[in-house]
Design goal:
This protein is of the alpha/beta class. The chain has helices spanning 13-22, 40-47, 61-78, 92-105, 130-141, 149-157, 163-182, 201-209, and strands at residues 3-8, 29-34, 52-57, 82-86, 108-113, 116-120, 145-146, 186-191, 194-199. The strands form two sheets. Strands 3-2-1-4-5-6 form a six-stranded mixed sheet, sandwiched between helices. Strands 7-9-8 form a three-stranded antiparallel sheet. A hairpin with a 2-residue loop joins strand 8 (186-191) and strand 9. Helix 3 (61-78) packs across helix 4, helix 3 runs parallel beside helix 8 and helix 5 (130-141) packs across helix 8 (201-209). It is elongated, with a radius of gyration of 21 Å.
């Protein structure tokens, strides 16, 4: 098992390096998340002789950055590795993205504060039931959206000619979709007689970890 650190970069190189040193957490690989040109060269030079370093550039806002971090977390977890997120000197947007990623993935977060390093306790995120997870995954597998509730039912439960079974399916689907929309994971839009269903950026972030 490797210990992986995800480190969004800001401008204070010394603080970033000090936070890694003071964290008292082993590190075999560091992902340096870069949104803007910062003190990247100095960080890479300081770390590369001791740990594996990979630079990941993000340019697409908070949710796209969180999706990129979640993709890293999922990949490393699938390989049996442990992941920490270091928010000691992240920019505002990368800090928010890091917190979203940590909360969804239940990763541990640490940061430098007042000459010490603290472990941040992230409140648990609302649990998403198995049926809703399945809907999110089906949407993600179909490009993030479907053109109607009927199409989603067909993808999830299969097509049926039984009217009573269909009505039960539709009622169940409508119930789950309402909950997902209230949680900000999907959005719906009426188009003629149909309702188009689309994952939100937050919904796409959830889909990565399921």
């Amino acid at each position: 098992m490797k210990i992986i650190h995800i480190v969004p970069l800001g401008t204070r190189c010394d603080l970033i390096l000090e936070s890694i040193r003071m964290s008292r957490k082993p590190v075999q690989k560091a992902y340096l998340i870069v949104g803007e040109e910062v003190c990247l060269d100095r960080i890479v030079k300081a770390l590369k002789d001791f740990v594996e370093v990979e630079v990941v550039r993000v340019d697409g806002g908070i949710y796209n950055s969180s999706i990129k971090m979640l993709e890293i977390i999922r990949k490393e977890r699938d390989e049996g590795n442990e992941v920490y997120v270091n928010l000691s000197d992240a920019s505002r947007d990368l800090c928010i993205a890091g917190l979203i990623s940590a909360q969804i993935s239940k990763s541990e977060v640490y940061m430098a504060s007042d000459g010490d390093v603290i472990d941040l306790k992230i409140p648990p995120i609302k649990s998403v039931g198995e049926d809703k997870v399945r809907l999110i995954k089906v949407l993600e597998e179909n490009g993030g959206e479907v053109e109607s509730i009927n199409r989603l039912i067909e993808l999830v439960e299969g097509k049926t000619e039984d009217q009573r079974k269909y009505m039960a399916q539709r009622a169940r689907m409508s119930y789950h979709l309402k909950g997902l929309e209230e949680d900000g994971l999907i959005e719906t839009r009426k188009e003629g007689k149909s309702v188009r269903i689309r994952l939100t950026p937050l919904g796409k972030a959830y889909a990565i970890m399921f």
